[in-house]
Amino acid sequence: MKLLLTRTYYPRGTNGTLYAGEQVLCRTIELPWRKNESGISCIPEGKYEVVLRHSKQHGEHLYLPDVESRSLILIHPANNALKELRGCIAPVTTHTGEGTGTESRKPFERLVDLVGAALTSGETVILEIVKAI
After folding, report:
1. Where do the DUF5675 domain residues begin and end (predicted)?
2. Ramachandran region, residue 12 (left: φ > 0; alpha: ψ -120 to 50; beta: rest)
3. Which one of 26, 30, 98, 117 has the minimum C-beta count within 10 Å?
């Protein structure tokens, strides 16, 4: 399964749209681009494998294990990138500003179900991140 995340960069955050094929799955929020600096920047554009992971803090969530020069890059619920993210990606229902959105848990749960089903059926899940045109 291939997921596509198209991004628009702003000084206070990065807003995106996540697709599976032609279907819009949700919007996303991330930190602003700050040259991939750990904890203060979104990750670089590129292709990343997505796997399921479980932790006490986030429960079941999605993990991007192979991000260059970064670790623990997750996809998890959040509504304010600057306050709640350290390089991760958060699905949201709607954007409310630069790096902010609403109702993150709903699209997050749908995304975990979709990716989980693909992984259970033996598919590899790849997230491609590109700049919006």
Report:
1. 5-115
2. alpha
3. 117
Tokens of 38: 């750990």
User: Domains in the chain: how many in total?
Assistant: 1
Domain extent for 126: 2-131
Per-residue pLDDT of the chain (133 residues; tens, 9 = 90+): 999 999 999 999 999 999 999 999 999 999 999 999 999 999 999 999 999 998 888 788 999 999 999 999 999 999 999 999 999 999 999 999 999 999 999 999 999 999 999 999 999 999 999 999 8
Q: Which tokens go with 53? A: 């992971």
CATH number of the domain that residue 120 is part of: 2.40.440
Residue 104: CB atoms within 10 A of its CB come to: 22
> DSSP 3-state assignment of 87?
coil
Do residues 126 and 50 lie in contact, with contact meaning Cβ atoms separated by under 8 Å? yes
